[in-house]
Amino acid sequence: MALKRSNNYGISAFLVSVFAHLLAIAVTILLLIWLLHFREGLAFKSDIKQKIFNVHPLLMILGFVLISGEAIMAYKTVPGRRKVQKILHLILHLIALVAGIVGIYAVIKFHNESGIPNIYTLHSWLGISTISLFGLQWLFSFFSLGYPGAKPTRRDRLVPWHALFGTVIFFMAILSAETGLVERFIFLRLHRNQEALVTVRRIKHKKKMKIAKKEVLLRPVHKLRSIDRPFDRLSSKPLIV
């Protein structure tokens, strides 16, 4: 696909686009491995509540952050007329907005079914603020810039502000994702240089549970009566929040 070249800041739009897409592919692969292999999988309805929660990071990162980034790059990466680029820019942002709304619904559903309060952390408030501003930006842009009846003079005057606020909101989305990961580290009681334990601890937890189950199955029946809920010691503090 042919890409436009830009001399802004002396950087080729082609090279930046290729680098951005490689990063997006890497993030997508790592995120899917984390959620599907290490974190039980995905589901909107399940007895394993972690599956419901997993929908949240999937949609917020892939849908809200990466697709928004793709929409921003549409004017440089999509060949064709300006009108085609504008329509694709608008549609991709709409997809990102819908993904963000569904992602927030998933985490609220998880909280309600798990008895956890909603919107009580910095990540929660920052995320709600970001998705709200994103929705307002999209509606305002549609009626003032994308709507066929909009005046050309108004468009020319508002485009720089649209680009500025859009960039700010995009970085707010990235910041929301980062605070979400930090929040996960805190809930897992991890310290500096222990980021890998987000998945490793889960593996160790599963291994301990398997070993404990084997020990219980191999013990005589009369000894099992003296065991008081043997698995509580292994999972007294949940690894998922």
UniProtKB/TrEMBL annotation:
A GO cellular component annotation in the UniProt record: membrane
Topology within the bilayer: Multi-pass membrane protein
Domain of life where this protein originates: Eukaryota
Bilayer-spanning residue ranges: 12-36, 57-75, 87-108, 120-140, 160-182
Top EC category: translocase
Any one GO molecular-function label of the UniProt entry: metal ion binding
EC nos: 7.2.1.3
Alphabetical list of SMART domains matching this protein: B561
Keywords linked to the UniProt accession: Electron transport, Heme, Iron, Membrane, Metal-binding, Transmembrane, Transmembrane helix, Transport
Domain Cytochrome b561: start-end pairs: 19-219
Cofactors required: heme b
Compartment(s) where it occurs, according to its Swiss-Prot or TrEMBL record: Membrane
Keyword Ubl conjugation attached: no
Catalytic activity: Fe(3+)(out) + L-ascorbate(in) = monodehydro-L-ascorbate radical(in) + Fe(2+)(out) + H(+)
InterPro entries referenced in this protein's UniProt entry, alphabetically: CYB561/CYBRD1-like, Cyt_b561/ferric_Rdtase_TM
Annotated protein name in UniProt: ascorbate ferrireductase (transmembrane)
A Pfam entry, by short name: Cytochrom_B561
Taxonomic source organism: Forsythia ovata
Keyword Membrane in annotation: yes
